[in-house]
Amino acid sequence: AQTVTQSQPEMSVQEAETVTLSCTYDTSESDYYLFWYKQPPSRQMILVIRQEAYKQQNATENRFSVNFQKAAKSFSLKISDSQLGDAAMYFCAYFSGYALNFGKGTSLLVTP
Amino acid sequence: NAGVTQTPKFRVLKTGQSMTLLCAQDMNHEYMYWYRQDPGMGLRLIHYSVGEGTTAKGEVPDGYNVSRLKKQNFLLGLESAAPSQTSVYFCASRPTGLNEQFFGPGTRLTVL
Q: How many CB atoms lie within 10 A of CB A61?
């Protein structure tokens, strides 16, 4: 089974600053999908961004972008111009062909 | 279009009691999933279904049963609840050909 590791249990960033959340994964497959989900206190799982492994270009969604390093099996999330509403748990996930494998999450605190 | 809904939102059980969690989706998705989320952990897959009438075990299936009698519904049953099943349960669905999963709001279950 594929494993997903998020080595930062907690991160903190000031409003308007940039923060990067780390994620590494283990797989023997060559084609797969990676995701970042956001879980605010409301508990709802919200898709932030996705990356297809066969695409070399890093995905970007407004203030959110990824640094996808396929050879290193690394998939970090960069949040630019951080806002108070970005405070949440962030989960990295790998799509295994039928379901998602999640990391343990990183709690992001945004300070004014 | 309600998306993915879960019933109930909260429940408290005593050890040994049984209950069924209902997941419903109105997007005509083929795939449906049940995950559990425990503190300090990401979501872990309990069972999943690739279509009406089919189910399969995930990473942590023990103590749970599921049924998919109708395409739009995916039921998760606990026959004899145990304190170790205290968790937040998420249902998700996705259509064939798309790897993004759509999540319900979650059910918080406490077993005393």
A: 12
